[in-house]
Specification:
- The structure is a homodimer.
- Chain A has a single domain (about 40-160), classed as Winged helix-like DNA-binding domain superfamily/Winged helix DNA-binding domain (Arc Repressor Mutant, subunit A, Orthogonal Bundle).
- In chain A, strands 1-3-2 form a 3-stranded antiparallel sheet.
- The first copy, chain A, has helices spanning about 20-50, 50-65, 70-75, 80-95, 115-135, 140-160, and strands spanning about 70, 95-100, 110-115.
- Chain A is globular, with a radius of gyration of 21 Å.
- The first copy, chain A, is mainly alpha-helical and about 160 residues long.
- In chain A, strand 2 (about 95-100) and strand 3 form a beta hairpin.
- Chain A binds a DNA duplex (30 and 30 nucleotides) through helix 1, helix 3 and helix 4.
Amino acid sequence: MSGADDIELDAETRLASDHRGELRLWLRLLTCATLIEGEVRGRLRERFDVTLPRFDLMAQLEKSPDGLTLGDLSRRMMVSNGNITGLVERLVDSGHIVRMPHATDRRVSYVRLTEAGRTEFAKMAAQHGDWIAQMFSGLNAEEQRTLLRLLGQLKQSVRARSEPA
Amino acid sequence: MSGADDIELDAETRLASDHRGELRLWLRLLTCATLIEGEVRGRLRERFDVTLPRFDLMAQLEKSPDGLTLGDLSRRMMVSNGNITGLVERLVDSGHIVRMPHATDRRVSYVRLTEAGRTEFAKMAAQHGDWIAQMFSGLNAEEQRTLLRLLGQLKQSVRARSEPA
DNA sequence: CTGTGGTATTTTAGGCTTGAAACATGCCGG
DNA sequence: CCGGCATGTTTCAAGCCTAAAATACCACAG
């Protein structure tokens, strides 16, 4: 690909390869994500002395009371396998989660919240929801719906053009 | 703003503290950012053997031909000071950028692209623009405008509710 | 001058993250 | 049974990132 006969400047000012609009949009999206993430990270650390990746992992487990394998976690959190190994190790050390062997397949290890982990997570999640809601409160219900829809489209668009697996 | 009379009609299903909609929106925003970032990171590594943070730093310098201080970089890239120190060190080692002392203030150090750095960056930036444009191509011009506007609102909303400095 | 408070950068300790290679098992055709 | 390929997890080296403390310097009041 990239053939691009961008030699000719089409119409008047805009070259065939002028992607400023999309770059601007991407930059703004990234700024929003970075701002929100930074805010959440700081508050979790201050008020609960927990890191964002740990919180995210616990959130995944909360949604799956029967436990998840490390591979499940890796896919759902969209991070590498090796990353999960370390995260799980630290959360086991702190008593928030436990490992359980798979009944028959000795390769896989399930992981789930402990009682203490679930209790702790519930407190954090409640606050977390409030923080997020507050940060999005500058958009009314319809604007939120529109944003959700457009981001859904974007997600599909990105997926379609990245890993056509 | 924020008024949100969510009292009405939450009689049965929706509690006052139900922030599922906002959480869903945040999750989707984060997914989009993660997907795009991962895609860009992978391609930069494969085709140019460069990391995303290095690319980002060079992009900032490209926009400021007269150079930037480490503090400028830290603020614009929204990362910590210490992070910039290490990033700059590696980019100096690889010959992409150079440090220049401030004329009178010996605390500050300016940094700018070398000729080689600028040339290398130009190649990367052209590709980068194409990748981004392609990933956003599932949205038409109007949808992109709307998304840009809503993200702008979100950005303001987050800023207003985080650091009222 | 000289202390005092502020700004720019670096250092430090710890944790997160990746991609690739190594391990450990499971599965299956022959 | 057994070799070979696939799958799940860990290890490894390198780099990214943060918050906080330390360092270096400037400016300015006295």
